[in-house]
Amino acid sequence: MTTKSETLLLVQKCAHTFSFYDLASGQAEKHIVLPNFPHEFTVDPVRRRAYVGHYGIETASHLGDVGGHSVFVIDLDKQEHVATLNIWPFYRPHGLTVDAEGRLYVMSEAHNTLLRFSDPVNRHVPDLAVPSGGYKTHLFALTKDAQTAYALNLLSNTVTKIKPNDPTFTPVAMVPGPVPEGNVLSADESLLYVANRGDDTIVAVDTASMKVVATGKTRRDPRPGLPLPRCAGPGPAAHHQFGRAFAVHLRHRLEGAALLRPCPAIRWRCRFTRWTVRSTSRSRTRRYVASTSTVSSSSRRSRPCANPDSSYVWQH
What is the reported pTM? Predict the structure, then answer.
């Protein structure tokens, strides 16, 4: 009986590639060269296509270039770049996700606007744009029914509740802490966990009241993989749920770091990597998000990544 293999998918921002790795051996299967600085991606529910945002510049602190305005469509079976979606006149796509119906949602960081593609396979331009209600909107969390999203706004230091399919809804804003970025919804979607990079905390936000109900302290610049924090909240249940969610992130970080083995002809270059593990059976996909070194092929010339900007807000 042949064991079904899994494939590790990576977008490599400063190597300018979308790559396939055999999970068992760690060997590279294919590198798809994309226009400079692709960043962030998502996979559709049936695991046939990946959507890669073309951020288009190394970081937002690099002045003089507005960034990209495209989303690249990758056929995961053919391992090919098969189409390009256009979000113009919006720029710097960052957070992306696909709902259960196959609708693609893309956040334009430059214009603080969430764009919806109801049929991204056949229609290559968005059919709805909804304001995020914040500034420098980086990422967002989407509920399972796709009726609500929570936008993380680095420059306004807010989380905003928005309705991706209702442009008449007025965003509801709250301040979880300075420079909120990392985020995940609890299994029942009653809590949104937010990592605040400005004060090294992780907080739990009640999604009904939009208020912080638990807080945990981390080391500098909280990211998945830091030690489990103690939290101050409304009782043991909140402590348990908060800790459990953070422990899941820790486990994912450790697994992801152990699974990735670069191929021989590479060098380590830049900080930002996103990866997904895809099963050929399409029955299971595990997603890992971490800020680590990206893999850059030594045979491809790419722009060197400068040291991170001193400002958290413009670091990406």
Answer: 0.72
